[in-house]
Design a protein that fits this description.
This protein is an alpha+beta fold. Helices cover about 40% and strands about 15% of the residues. InterPro entries: Aim32/Apd1-like, Thioredoxin-like_sf.
């Protein structure tokens, strides 16, 4: 039995529209169900990038962060183009000669540089406070304007090695707080996803608070892809400069970093990785004793090649961690992998070679084993002598 409903379209337009909509909807669902039945397959669900690479990925907050920052005492940051144009190894790319030349000059003078030096690339945008060719130096909080390729060697010699004024360039004192967020997408997808979102959030929250002395910029790889979002905050407290590293940072952490870290000088311990100028064991041993304020600055190592045992152990730990990350990233297809913990400057790195320490350790182990063997032999000889004397004495008594 078929029920037919007729309506006068001019008298009941709304009723006619409703009937037409229901009829069309029924036809659509029937056709759709028939198509599903015929194909008997459905496409797999699409995994959101935020779950794969972003703030909802499984590895977030799975490891302790304190002590994972790189050991260094000085940070050289070159302003160069935008983060979406950087290749995976921007500091060693033939197609980007400027950063490659600066990295090469630092490598060539590595034995002359008095303190551990980290090199990173940040964005340089014309018409902003940072332009291509500007070089930022921390903890000095100095900006050198417009470095050119022909002047790189003289700049490294005068400023980095001899810590003098740059004779051919313009030097400016920096103020305020400077936030560098890793957004190196060609190096690692996690940093490429998290970085731009955090940068936008920082700028929005800073504007809402009327903070005109907070500067946010994208930077290249700083080590620890798995801790993305990664960022470094350089700020002045009590006329001293501190550089603090944070990891596993999400947009929800941005207000707290602005209000508490920058505004009040308080460390956010749950996402704190470490700071410039403090060796690993000192970081770990002093973390619980940290007052809720930034330290009064950093003590730089002024003697060439002055390296503490704590720093050696940290460098070995960082190198092993980087190698593990490279292996995992290649297996997962997440990042490019490779490079050293200090920007992979083809040898200009704060990571020292483990070969020497392994050889030293093996020699000690060998001596220890030889000593143990000699000790066992000595004990055996003594026991043998005692037993022999006892037997001779017993035989002597029987003869009498």
């Amino acid at each position: 039995m078929q029920l037919t409903i007729t309506t006068n379209r001019s008298r009941f337009p709304a009723v006619h529209f409703a009937i037409s909509y229901l009829s069309a909807s029924s036809h659509f669902h029937s056709s759709n169900m028939a198509a599903v039945s015929e194909n008997a397959t459905t496409e797999p669900p699409v995994i959101d990038d935020n779950v794969k690479f972003g703030f909802l990925r499984k590895e977030m907050h799975t490891e302790k962060l304190a002590g994972t920052a790189i050991a260094y005492d000085r940070h050289v940051i070159l302003c160069y183009k935008t983060h979406d144009t950087w290749p995976s190894r921007v500091e060693s790319s033939d197609s980007h000669p400027f950063p490659k030349l600066l990295a090469g000059a630092l490598k060539a003078r590595k034995n002359d540089i008095p303190v551990k030096t980290l090199m990173t690339i940040c964005e340089g945008r014309e018409g902003t406070e940072l332009s291509d060719g500007d070089v930022l130096l921390f903890p000095e909080m100095v900006k050198y304007r417009g470095l050119k390729e022909p002047d790189i060697n003289s700049f490294v010699d005068e400023v980095i090695v001899n810590r003098k004024q740059w004779s051919t360039g313009v030097q400016e004192k920096m103020t305020g707080s400077h936030i560098f967020v890793c957004a190196h997408s060609s190096r690692d997808k996690r940093c490429g996803f998290c970085g731009p979102i955090l940068i936008k959030k920082f700028k929005e929250e800073a504007e809402l608070r009327g903070l005109k002395n907070v500067y946010v910029s994208a930077c290249s790889h700083v080590g620890g892809h798995k801790y993305a979002g990664n960022l470094i905050i350089y700020s002045v407290q009590n006329n001293k400069v501190s550089g603090h590293w944070y990891g596993y940072v999400s947009p929800n952490d941005v207000p707290e970093l602005l209000d508490d870290h920058i505004g009040k000088g308080q460390i956010i311990e749950r996402i704190w990785r470490g700071q410039m100028g403090v060796p690993l064991l000192k970081k770990l041993s002093s973390l619980k004793a940290i007052e809720p304020s930034l330290p009064n600055g950093n003590t730089l190592i002024n003697e060439k090649n002055n390296e503490t045992n704590e720093t050696k152990e940290e460098n070995i730990k960082n190198k092993k961690e980087e190698e593990d990350n490279i292996k995992k990233e290649k297996e997962d297809g997440i990042g490019e992998g490779g490079g050293g913990c200090c920007q992979g400057l083809n040898g200009f790195s704060c990571c020292r070679d483990e070969k020497e320490e392994k050889e030293s350790t093996s020699k000690i182990d060998l001596l220890w084993k030889k000593w143990e063997e000699n000790e066992i032999v000595t004990v055996a000889v003594v026991v043998g002598v005692v037993v022999t004397v006892g037997l001779v004495y017993s035989f002597y008594k029987r003869l009498r």
